[in-house]
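Researcher: Structure for this, please.
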Amino acid sequence: MSAAIERTDVLVIGSGFGGAIAAYHLAAGGAKVTVLERGPWLESKDFEHDYKLGSSYTRIFDFVVGDGMSVLGGNCVGGGSVVYFAAMPRAPRFVFDRRGSIGRRMWPGSISRDTLDPWYDRVEESLSVSRQGWSDASYAGGLWAAACHRAGRTANPLAAAIDNAKCVNCNFMMAGCRFEAKQSLTANYLPAAVAHGAEIRPLHEVQYLTRTAEGGYRVHYTIVHDEDYRLQNGSGVIEAKIVVMAAGAGATPVILQRSEAHLGRMPHAVGRYFSGNGERLNTAVLNEDKVAELLGLSRGEGLPPYGANAIGKGPTVASWDRLDGSLPEYSRYSLEQLYFPPGLGTILAQAPDATGPTWFGREKKEILRNWKSWLTIFSMTEDDNEGVFGPPPATGNAHRISQQMLGRGNLTYRPTENTWRGWRQSDADVKEILEKDGLAKVMPWTNDLVGAYTVHPLASCRMGDDPHTSALDDRNELRGHPGIFVTDGSAVPCALTVNPAMTIAAIAERAIPGIVASARLRGVAVTYGAPAPNGRTGGRKGVLPLLRREQPARA
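Model: Predicted structure, token format:
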């Protein structure tokens, strides 16, 4: 006998930026909110400082290998915010006028840098985002800045959601912050949502949606085993008047594709136009003698002047010389220093000047001995939204291969010449900066093993004005399916040339008034107007003029 169907006002799928922000505001406004998260719920004390299989590292990540593109994302309560490096730049102004492969503006006409800035302000207030100073830069960031300066380029400290007073430079940010220095959503929006009555259920993986006779939705889920994610511990159904999809750009379209048999035809753009944020990685092997001679850097006490790749935060310094709106599309990008942990980065790094294989073999073994002298540069370029999701797997977002972390997905990605142009140009820039006068040897990561790769998947259910090339309207509502909203990275129309967390969060904040209005039409007693999770109200003032201007016309 099946269990009774549960009921809630708002069902949120996923607990990353898109899900946590929606859960907080709707719960604070008086709605009954339930959040289903497929990953575990870890506290700060649970984050382990190692990369062993079965540790927190493999429990909170989801690595899905597709055909030509692999995606690394969060798999835990807090989603990508638990594993991100907390870099929070705003998207450049030109991004919102991008035309891409469709030959016309991709973003909705109602969204520009100017109209999004008040929502950026709200996120900045809620997550205590601040511009870092040079004293906050890591060893790797400082070296990258010095190399850029010597090559005639500029570099800037990044805005970040980090409390530097708590940061101990352990460099395990990507495996979760046990010192609570990083502003993960588990430190703000999610506890605030719970305080207002929201219920968060970890290890609940949504499979598909069906429709109720009253116009609401039934969300069908399975319960994931807490150690072996390939196993299930039961299933259930929750009925909701509003559904907020925030499972991530690699999972939201898959759930919607699987739901098509029950809900009816999905918009053409569901599972199409995927963007990897144009991401590309290069590894430089630094010549320590040249670091001292050319950059004048020294640590004293007989230590190598750099030799510290494993010390410090993630990205702290970026070069934005190519973020110039007057440049042609596909030639604009940022170059950001970061530290990628052992494992994937070690495997995919190539050996410069190798006479044989570049990503394995004798020369590769030699550069592995010099891992403390590695510097990784992260390029975020403009790609062509060429990713397409095939038929969904029977369950989940991918066929799970291992007990945790690894899966095989249905995403196909064939980089166009436009995308390759940006990659080649950014590769050449990194090489020019770091190989000047023999400072380092540089090679991009190989695409031979897992295709292209991204840690910032976007645009697989993107918003826009054209119903053929966008799955969502400008209020984040799924076309043809009223009451379903998408607020995660899949709603972002295109690559941003910078880290996307700030923009994903701002778009989610912007979507809330429309979700509240839709919920009220469906009989949910909910209001809009909660302060930031930390109680601050300054950001509310900035969006009030927008609400007065936009909301009446959409009622």
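Researcher: Any notable elements?
Model: The radius of gyration is 23 Å. The chain has a mean pLDDT of 94.
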